[in-house]
Design goal:
This protein is α+β, with helices and mostly antiparallel strands. It has a domain of about 80 residues: Arc Repressor Mutant, subunit A (Orthogonal Bundle). The protein contains 5 helices and 6 strands. The strands form 3 sheets. Strands 1-2 form a two-stranded antiparallel ribbon. The longest helix is centred in the last third of the chain and has 29 residues.
């Protein structure tokens, strides 16, 4: 039995230098799990795939700047996302330290690790729930020029 097309082994997504790195599923184009802050009327995602990846990369590198570089994102944008994460949840997910011999850094709090683990678990459940439908649905879509159907 072959693995569904949206599964990506962890080593293809993030390096395993941290306990935060875990196997995740690539999202089918157009299928993304976003958790909105404030319930039904909210429009700002409290957590989504980009914020989850940013948290993982901060956990690996201990640096917002390094995480931003790894994601080809500006430091300013990464900092804005960290601020949004910390404002959306009951406790901070990322704590920053300024100065010092090594110039400061950032770390994921235990609460941040819990939030990330729960998000990844929900993402896996959502992807698994639609796994059997994705191939059939894909056949209904127009093919991009130069691609073949499997």
């Amino acid at each position: 039995m072959r693995a569904p097309p949206f599964f990506v082994p962890a080593e293809n997504h993030l390096e395993r230098r941290s306990s935060l790195a875990c196997p995740i599923m690539a999202r089918y184009p157009g299928l993304t799990l976003r958790i909105l802050a404030g319930g039904r009327r909210a429009s700002t995602p409290a957590m989504g795939p980009g914020k989850a990846e940013l948290l993982e990369r901060i956990g690996q590198s201990g640096s917002i700047a390094a995480a931003a570089r790894a994601m080809d994102m500006s430091y300013r944008r990464a900092w804005q996302l960290v601020e949004a994460l910390n404002e959306s949840f009951a406790q901070p997910l990322v704590i920053t330290e300024t100065g010092g011999a090594r110039g400061g850094g950032a770390r994921i709090t235990s609460f941040g690790r819990e939030v990330l683990a729960r998000y990844r678990k929900m993402e896996a459940k959502a992807s698994a729930a639609v796994a059997s439908d994705i191939d059939g649905f894909s056949r209904l879509l127009k093919r991009a020029a130069g691609t073949r159907r499997s």
